[in-house]
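Forum: Protein Structure Q&A
Topic: Joint prediction for protein chains with partners

I've read a bunch of threads here and the consensus seems to be that you should model interacting components together rather than docking separate models afterwards. I'd like to see that in practice. Below is the full input, 630 residues plus whatever partners are listed. Could one of the regulars post the assembled result?
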Amino acid sequence: MSEPDNDNLERFFRKAAQDPHVVFNENDWRKLEARLDAKAFRASSNRPNRWRSGVASVGVILFFTGITYFLLPDRHKSGLTYSTKNSRIEAIPENKSADMVESPGKAAPDIVALKSNQIASVKKNKSNAEIKTFTVGNATGNSNTGNQDRPDQRVETKKEAGENLSRSTPNGIQPQDALENRLTELKVSEGGTGYSPAMALTLREDSVDRLFVEKDKPDAGKSEMKANPDSVVKGQVTPAPARWSIVLSFAPDFSSTRSNQYTAPGTAFGLIAHYHLSNSFSVATGVIKSHKQYWSYGNEYQPPKGYWKRNTNGVVPESIYGTCNVLEIPLAVQYKVAKMKRSRMFITGGLSSYIMLNESSYFTFENANPGSNEEWNSSKTSQYLFSIANVSAAYERDVLPNLAIGIEPYAKIPLTGIGWSGIKMLSMGASVTLRYSFRKKPD
Amino acid sequence: MEQAQHHIRPLLEGCLRQDRACQRSLYLEFYSYSMSICLRYSDNRDDAAEILNDAFMKIFSNLKTFDFGKPFKPWLRKILVNTAINRYHQKQRQIQTEEIESLYNKSDTEKTLSGISYQEVVGLLQNLSPAYRTVFNLHVIEGYSHEEIGRILHISTGTSKSNLFKAKEQLKKMLNDFFEADYVRTR
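Posted by a regular:
Agreed with the consensus. Here's the joint model:
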């Protein structure tokens, strides 16, 4: 090609390129707008610091407020122990001797006289109407949520129990504070000495209404009064707890492939059944439906071989924002580490199986990657048996005889990769729980 | 130029605030200009639209780095060209060398035209292989030297010159198919 030809050719194309007029295509703008929307959505989702600090602050405030409220002595009961119009239950501090609380004779009519109609189920195997076995409710009005209080908190007594109890009156002493703390320790010693070293107890007439009389024991000749401090609430007879309880939970769920990168939280709703093996241990299983949102680096994904080459021009995304819905089936053991008057603390450990219901991923590339897929979706279910380890700690507080609310911070640690991309997803959160405890039917 | 810059300044400021209406207005304002550049670097219109949108995504994301005291159009052009070159690199990773031989066979363009429009010129360019087309655009239209092109495209200066020569040869043949053989010479 000659030099003039070259010059002409270049001039021709330069001139052609000078004054172009390309007709606007609305579809081009729509595509760009969709990308802008997606970017804005991702930007709004990827604000870990704001979310984390906000949720953490609220969590800390709630936690300490709750601890302060629940653990401080009950102010409304600090002056006088459980009391109704005609009844009182009073306790004497441990350091008070029985003599100090010996009531005047006047008190006798008021005090325990176990009426025959009130103890209908009490078997009298002797003419002197020996009291057999009682389950005494919690005079503090505490409820029992089933997993914490077993009928092993008993007070044994003989028929003198009534007399012994009746001998105690306040007599100017202020025993109320001690009652709530001591009632569960109540032991009315056998032999009519009347008082445990720990406390003295006065049961007024209508307090007897709260007595739950257990069925006869084979050793009927020996009276035994069982005091279940949580079994009676405000005059109602509350049966002993059964071995089952169910827990409804809700949690904001923070998921990520790394512990320091979280997006806006997902959600987790669950229904868990507990079977109480003993006073301290229970096994739990159920189902938790979670919507998880997470952020990860592209190189943490392990999609099927050749996926990036086929779908993203071979470019591994810089970051991936993902969402998924999973059903979680936990199998866990819960251990009660502490028990307070109306509350308790647990630790839980176990394994969870995941059923992936659907998942979506949105890719972000470091540089423009035209022609690449920008997202991936799947509704294909897949199962991952015992792929997640669960650990949690819980605090629970009674609100009704059968009902307790609680908070349970948890961490779910991946043991295997899950989902299409095989990511190892770490989840953390704090469940708000509502526990319903089943009760044995009274005999 | 200053008047034009003054005219688009509110649009740019709106884009900084992620105002969607301003973003659309800016897009419309420079659509024709931008698309004309993208078309010259792409195989077809769809590819050109993707380059265009990639470039505008970068513009909207990085507008805060733009010096408002300087004209916008050169900045836009630079981003467009860089985006097109990025795409060229990505394509190069995918496309095997055999495509270079096969592409020329596709140039069975219309031959009944009495004149030639911009779209037709672009059509001719799009019939070139990406390697030839990119060198031709960078050298002839954008005015880059072969040394610069070599650095941009990660090729040697000799390869750049060779590609330019082959691009011109192919374009001349294609033009000859459109016009009489001496049309180019007489312009």
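Chain A has a mean pLDDT of 67.
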